[in-house]
């Protein structure tokens, strides 16, 4: 039945616990870890991880601290009230600083660069308003060309820096995709200098990520013209004890598509599509430094550990098998990795990128699922190819869908065995010795409908032995009614023989020949057998062995002497007697057995019993 060696060997990918499967999974995991570790070093991948930070850091962000900065916005209402011509006279900024100081502001930061002179009177007025509680903005730019690399620092005019006011670098450095995520690393940054002016010095972290508190206009904001006269426009003590930042905050062009003056993309921009003003960015940096709310990047060892964790979870998920549970587990695992990254970010203030471990998990699970799918397809094809000639198509399909029902190594099962032999075959062969092709055709015309009947009743055809057919029920698939199905198949085989004989008689009469009447004998017995692969490593059959098989063969031979076409053993009779009427024949002793056994025949085919049996 199977030739060329066991076809199921080498399918360890689909066999839980086999060394080939384990080694394959571990090899996939190692390759996935190396691949993802290599990807994590590339700039495009880092930008993808940065986008993951954007989404995670903007899920339920903390609100701005209560003592955070207040923003005085140079906005459209102020341009309408004061005048649209920009820049405004510097003595106006001096008036604003004095008004804020009178209103009780603790420190004032002017996010405006005064790098060029205006009128002497206006510049002098601004100088007179400056003090240690004021921070002016500077700028620092790195320009790289093919000819040279330049580091350009722009500071306020000397007349302003000569005062007790501090200068803070307000430059920011967005990532490669244009989104600002990092805390500016300047030790003399605008926010850091403003903290010093307020008496709250803070250490500027290196390579830290900025925690955004919300979209544009999250911070309390008033218009410039209102801050010039707070007694008239604002609640009492609105600025008392507060840090005030002054800067452009125009709303007429705050979108990504339109751009605008001193506006930047923040992590919230991917959610809202709106840009954030530079002065509000500085307020965010201020609170990150003042309250240590910035987010540290996970060290390299933690990133590697997370990748190994993803690989380890995936190995456990596919160690035994893959299927819909693996898919569900993959979804849960990826969500758990995202949740773990979010918890570390929100409560530990550390960003562990979740995409690398999620990707390595997905790669391992997908690759092993593909291996298992291919192995299962190969197993199904092998089963279909091996059993298609011995089982009905429905049973072959059922076995292919669930190969676990097939135990190829051999097992002990209770089977019902059927032997069917052609009576008088030697005489028929002698009569047709001059036409062997006709003899072969005749035998095939008989065995074909008999085989179809066996398979239609769920039987397994074991083998053809010349003019004899052997079949059994209850293997390789379970059949609780195996004895009934075997006897019903036997009765239908006799009916099929009658139909074939009628066809042969009609054909013989048409040709003017003497018709050939075919007869068969059938023996059916039930008992324990060993069923599995029988033969050598090079060639073997799926077959049944045991005393019950031998007795079934002897019963087929005894049917000739008993004068009935179908003989049933005692064990079979006990299983079918309540469904099929039986006639007891007599006790017989068959060759090779020392004890006698009672045999039966279906009432529909019973006949007088002869006096001899062997």
UniProtKB/TrEMBL annotation:
Top-rank taxon: Bacteria
Coiled coil (UniProt feature): none
Domain Guanylate cyclase: from-to ranges: 416-556
One Pfam family matching this protein: CHASE2
Gene3D superfamilies noted in UniProt: Nucleotide cyclase
Keyword vocabulary terms for this entry: Membrane, Transmembrane, Transmembrane helix
GO biological process: cAMP biosynthetic process; intracellular signal transduction
Stored InterPro entries: A/G_cyclase (IPR001054), Adenylyl/Guanylyl_Cyclase_3/4 (IPR050697), CHASE2 (IPR007890), Nucleotide_cyclase (IPR029787)
PROSITE patterns assigned: GUANYLATE_CYCLASE_2 (PS50125)
Membrane-spanning segments: 24-45, 300-319, 326-345, 351-370
GO molecular function: adenylate cyclase activity
Name this polypeptide is given: Adenylate/guanylate cyclase domain-containing protein
Organism for this UniProt entry: Mesorhizobium wenxiniae
């Amino acid at each position: 039945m199977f030739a060329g060696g066991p076809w199921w060997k080498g399918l360890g990918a689909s066999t839980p616990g086999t060394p080939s499967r384990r080694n394959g999974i571990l090899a996939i995991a190692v390759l996935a870890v190396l691949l993802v570790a290599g990807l994590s070093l590339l700039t495009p991948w880092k930008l993808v991880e940065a986008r993951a930070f954007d989404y995670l850091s903007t899920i339920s962000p903390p609100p701005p601290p209560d003592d955070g900065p207040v923003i005085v916005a140079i906005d459209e209402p102020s341009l309408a009230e004061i005048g649209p011509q920009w820049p405004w006279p510097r003595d106006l900024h001096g008036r604003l600083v004095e008004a804020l100081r009178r209103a009780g502001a603790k420190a004032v930061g002017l996010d405006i660069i005064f790098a060029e002179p205006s009128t002497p009177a206006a510049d002098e007025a601004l100088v007179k308003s400056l003090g240690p509680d004021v921070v002016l903005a500077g700028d620092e730019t790195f320009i790289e060309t093919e000819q040279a690399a330049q580091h350009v620092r722009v500071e306020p005019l000397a007349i302003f820096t000569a005062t007790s006011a501090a200068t803070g670098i307000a430059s920011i450095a967005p990532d490669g995709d244009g989104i600002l995520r990092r805390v500016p690393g300047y030790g003399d940054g605008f926010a850091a200098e403003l903290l010093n002016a307020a008496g709250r010095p803070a250490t500027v972290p290196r390579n830290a990520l900025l925690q955004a508190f919300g979209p544009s206009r999250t911070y309390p904001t008033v218009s410039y013209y209102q801050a010039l006269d707070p007694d008239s426009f604002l609640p009492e003590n609105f600025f008392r004890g507060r840090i005030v930042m002054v800067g452009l905050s125009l709303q007429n062009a705050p979108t990504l598509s339109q751009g605008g003056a001193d506006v930047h993309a923040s992590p919230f921009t991917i959610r809202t599509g709106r840009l954030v003003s530079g002065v509000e960015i500085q307020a965010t940096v201020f609170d990150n430094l003042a309250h240590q709310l910035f987010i540290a990047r996970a060290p390299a060892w933690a990133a590697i550990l997370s990748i190994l964790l993803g690989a380890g979870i995936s190995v456990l998920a596919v160690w035994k098998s893959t299927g819909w549970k693996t898919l569900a587990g993959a979804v849960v695992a990826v969500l758990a990795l995202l949740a773990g990254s979010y918890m570390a970010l929100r409560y530990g203030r550390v960003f562990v990128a979740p995409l690398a471990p999620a990707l390595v998990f997905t790669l391992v699970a997908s690759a092993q699922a593909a291996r298992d799918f291919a192995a299962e397809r190969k197993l199904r094809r092998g089963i279909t190819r091996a059993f298609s000639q011995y089982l009905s198509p429905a049973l072959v399909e059922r076995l292919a869908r669930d190969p676990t029902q097939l135990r190829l190594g051999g097992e002990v099962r209770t089977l019902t065995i059927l032997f069917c032999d052609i009576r008088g075959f030697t005489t028929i062969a002698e009569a047709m010795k001059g036409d062997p092709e006709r003899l072969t055709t005749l035998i095939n015309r008989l065995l074909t409908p008999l085989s179809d009947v066996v398979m239609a009743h769920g039987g397994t055809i074991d083998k053809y032995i010349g003019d004899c057919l052997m079949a059994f029920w209850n293997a390789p698939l379970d059949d609780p009614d195996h004895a009934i199905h075997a006897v019903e198949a036997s009765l239908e085989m006799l009916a099929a023989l009658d139909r074939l004989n009628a066809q042969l008689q009609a054909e013989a009469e048409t040709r003017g020949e003497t018709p050939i009447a075919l007869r068969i004998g059938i023996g059916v017995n039930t008992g324990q057998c060993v069923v599995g692969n029988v033969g050598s490593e090079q060639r073997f059959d799926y077959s049944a062995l045991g005393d019950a098989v031998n007795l079934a063969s002897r019963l087929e031979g005894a049917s000739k002497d008993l004068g009935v076409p179908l003989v049933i053993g005692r064990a079979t009779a006990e299983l079918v007697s309540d469904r099929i009427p039986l006639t007891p024949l007599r006790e017989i002793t068959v060759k090779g057995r020392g004890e006698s056994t009672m045999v039966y025949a279906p009432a529909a085919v019973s006949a007088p019993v002869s006096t001899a049996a062997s």
